[in-house]
Design a protein that fits this description.
13 helices, 12 strands, single chain, Spore Coat Polysaccharide Biosynthesis Protein SpsA, Chain A, 44% helix, globular, alpha/beta, two-stranded antiparallel ribbon, 19% strand
């Protein structure tokens, strides 16, 4: 069973060095490492070549989605591992996930900077169209010891059967970076395809190492892409029925962005999302309303369960308060 490791890179040579070292320690090694360079200037591509990786130059910073897609197209393995350059993998990460009876699989991703803290596990979507990387910033605990079926895997460190991309397609490059993986998960859900979160596969992530969690460009793209998720996946009738959760989810997220000094970037992203709404909507069919309803109900149950057991973020506390407890 062959595995190709696809790594989009934009600078971060020191981070890439740690990732490649962890790839070289895998008990089931990748048959090839494909580094997609988005115009690095710090020697990251040269480092990759020194370790035997195949480097493909994009010639510019085309975004994570475009780079990941190029790597997937160039790979011929049975499993394709898409990895951020700022992750490190436990030695059995590939061996564990490649044994999954699923279309895609991800593991427990811990914070590399905060011992014993979850960076992410899988993604859950609420009726409002915003998503939570379940467990982000919370202490590792009982909930994350249980493996489970999931609808959406973060593309931080995930494995995919190569045939999946023939069925679902690649990432939507209009997202550039951020939430493109949630969009992919929602497209999988529309076709009844799910994956696995395996708690015994462990990785460590230095989250938002490239720009920073509240960098204005990060906030602008997230705000825009949240609108794109609605355009791509929410039928008109569902948008009308869930108007209040949608309004609350986006306004509250704008409040959080403003509190972190990125309110203008949020407004810019919202405006770009609104301008691109019709083009996004006309390019694809929305999810069946029943499937979307099931996905959102499951997502909100998961968010509430984990938030209730680990302490509510102000965002989710207010969201559930304003939407009368959720779906």
């Amino acid at each position: 069973m062959s595995i190709a490791a696809v790594v989009p890179v934009w600078n971060g040579r020191h981070l890439l060095e740690r990732l490649i070292a962890s790839l070289e320690r895998q008990t089931r090694p990748a048959s090839e490492i494909v580094v997609i360079d988005n115009g690095s200037t710090d020697g990251a591509p040269e480092l990759a070549r020194q370790h035997g990786a195949r480097v493909i130059a994009m010639g510019r910073n085309a975004g994570f989605a475009a780079a990941a897609n190029r790597g997937i197209r160039e790979s011929r393995a049975e499993w394709i591992a898409v990895l951020n350059n700022d992750v490190e993998l436990a030695p059995d990460y590939f061996a564990t996930l490649a044994g999954a009876d699923a279309w895609f699989a991800t593991g427990k991703i811990l914070s590399a900077d905060s011992l014993g803290q979850i960076d992410g596990s899988f993604d859950a979507v609420c009726r409002g169209g915003t998503a939570w990387r379940v467990g982000a910033g919370r202490p590792d605990g009982e909930y994350f010891l249980k493996s489970r079926r999931i609808a959406s895997a973060p593309w931080t460190a995930a494995l995919f059967r190569s045939e999946l991309f023939d069925r679902v397609g690649l990432l939507d490059e209009r997202f550039e970076s951020y939430l493109e993986d949630v969009d992919f998960g929602m497209r999988c859900a529309a076709q009844g395809i799910d994956g696995v979160y395996d708690s015994t596969a462990v990785a460590w992530h230095r989250g938002s190492a490239t720009l920073g969690r509240w960098h204005k460009e990060t906030v602008r793209r997230i705000a825009r892409n949240q609108i794109f998720l609605l355009a791509r996946h929410y039928p008109t009738g569902v948008c009308a029925r869930w108007f209040w959760p949608i309004f609350c989810a986006h306004l509250l997220w704008g409040g959080v962005a403003t509190r972190h000094g990125a309110g203008i970037a949020w407004l810019q992203g919202m405006a770009q999302g609104v301008r691109g709404f019709s083009g996004m909507r006309s390019s694809c069919a929305s999810i069946d309303a029943r499937i979307l309803g099931k996905l959102a109900r499951s997502g909100e149950r998961t968010i509430r369960e984990v938030q209730a057991s680990t302490g509510y973020d102000a965002y989710w506390r207010l969201y559930f308060l304003l939407t009368a407890g959720g779906a």
